[in-house]
Design goal:
Layout lengths: L24 H15 L7 E7 L5 E3 L11 E3 L2 E6 L7 E3 L9 E2 H9 L12 E6 H7 L33 E3 L11 E3 L8 E2 L14 E2 L3
Parallel strand pairs: 3-11
Antiparallel strand pairs: 1-4, 1-7, 2-3, 4-5, 5-6, 7-10, 8-9
Helix pairs in contact: 1-3
């Protein structure tokens, strides 16, 4: 299995030392961004929270800890951290993958994303990238999207308080991500996020998608 290049120094502690709660990937990434900000090792502007979803809220990812063998996990959405490094290689931080942490971007693209062209249209992925400094400033979640109709938790929440934003309503605009409406994700009107576009990250693998393992955030 490929490992991060020796010259690259990880921006966060080893995976076991990172703040992590299963099925709360957007908060896990927020915590990674918060750690990176506190260390001042890399410019925070080199990092992006990457939201992956689609109109049907069905996106397959391979090499996930919740998967079985070579079957993908189909999430309603997933969030990972991208480091656009000043070196020759970019890196992905995904606390839910079995791939290296961090993982070289080209390895993650081939092993975790694979080809949209090999998938049925309803499984095609879309992404939105939000610069880490804006994500820290504008993300908030009351976690209500993780409760069922009876108000019970579908998955245990993180032990720390809900993340709230200090941005005023006049400064922010809701971003439509195709993810649960009660998850409050905001970004400043002034730049810092990409469009919500289809992704084609690798060109080397083909084949029909395996029977999916279904999960929800």
């Amino acid at each position: 299995m490929a490992r991060p290049a020796a010259a690259y120094e990880a921006a966060v502690p080893p995976r076991p030392a990172c703040a992590y709660t299963s099925c709360y990937c957007e908060e896990n990434v927020w915590k990674l961004c918060d750690y990176i900000r506190s260390q001042d090792q890399y410019p925070l502007e080199e990092f992006y929270a990457v939201f992956i979803s689609n109109d049907r809220r069905m996106i397959p990812l391979w090499k996930q800890k919740s998967g079985h063998g070579d079957e993908p996990v189909v999430w309603d959405y997933h969030v990972i951290l991208l480091h656009v490094s000043s070196g020759k290689q970019n890196f992905i931080y995904d606390l839910d993958t079995v791939l290296p942490f961090p993982c070289p971007f080209d390895v993650y693209s081939v092993e975790a994303f694979r080809l949209d062209d090999s998938l049925r249209p309803e499984f095609h992925r879309k992404i939105r990238m939000i610069r880490a400094d804006l994500y820290l400033k504008t993300f908030a979640s009351d976690r209500s999207h993780m409760k069922d109709a009876n108000g019970k938790w579908q998955k245990p929440p993180p032990s720390y308080p809900c993340i709230e934003t200090a941005a005023s309503p006049d400064e922010i605009k809701m971003i439509e991500l195709g993810i649960p409406d009660k998850l409050v994700l905001r970004a400043l009107l002034r730049g810092g996020s990409s469009g919500f576009n289809q992704i084609h990250l690798c060109k080397t693998r083909t084949g029909e998608v395996a029977p999916p393992v279904w999960f929800t955030h």
